[in-house]
Design goal:
The protein is of the alpha+beta class. It is 27% helix and 23% strand.
Length: 176
């Protein structure tokens, strides 16, 4: 027997419309193509998962770190500085802040010297800490600040009855 006759024997007669199955392909079974119904189910499930992930991300984005427009915020920086004021934008690469105040520690020049009243806090001789309005410095900056997110440790909303919020409101009332 020659090789050509062996090849012919390996081929089975084909049913009309089918290709002959060779001995090399006999162990390989073809899977039936998935039905269009199962494809639709997979597409619907994937679309539902994508929609769910989008909704969860949107909800997280909107509810996490929400700036309360009627409250003041405190922004804590990596250099130890803290600014108090109104955040306009807390998303993106920069935070936008206005109506800004910061703490300034007054150190006594002479031993035993005390502060009788701090301008913004109104406390008498307590911690020698002042709440200073941004813009009253020598170089006269505007009361607007863009703070890089890279320099921010965290920020938080302040309660209206907190000492800083009360001191800011007192300062604003005294300086109208």
């Amino acid at each position: 027997m020659d090789d050509s006759s062996n090849r012919r024997e390996d081929l089975r007669p084909a049913v009309a419309g089918q290709r002959p199955i060779s001995a090399a392909n006999q162990g390989v079974r073809r899977q039936a193509a998935p039905s269009s119904k199962s494809k639709k189910v997979v597409i619907v499930v994937v679309a539902a998962l994508v929609a769910l992930a989008f909704a969860a991300g949107t909800w997280f984005f909107l509810t996490t770190g929400t700036v309360k427009k009627d409250a003041y915020q405190a922004v804590f920086l990596t250099n130890g500085q803290v600014y108090f004021g109104k955040l306009g934008n807390a998303r993106g690469d920069y935070l936008s802040m206005s109506n800004i105040y910061y703490l300034q520690v007054q150190q006594a020049v002479q031993p035993g010297e005390t502060t009788t009243a701090t301008p913004a806090t109104g406390t008498e001789g307590s911690d020698n800490v002042q709440l200073v309005k941004l813009g009253n410095e020598l170089h006269g900056p505007d009361d607007q600040m863009q703070i890089s997110q890279k320099q921010v440790l965290f920020w938080e909303n302040l309660k209206a009855d907190g000492k800083v919020s009360i001191a800011i409101e007192k300062y604003k009332a005294d300086n109208k």
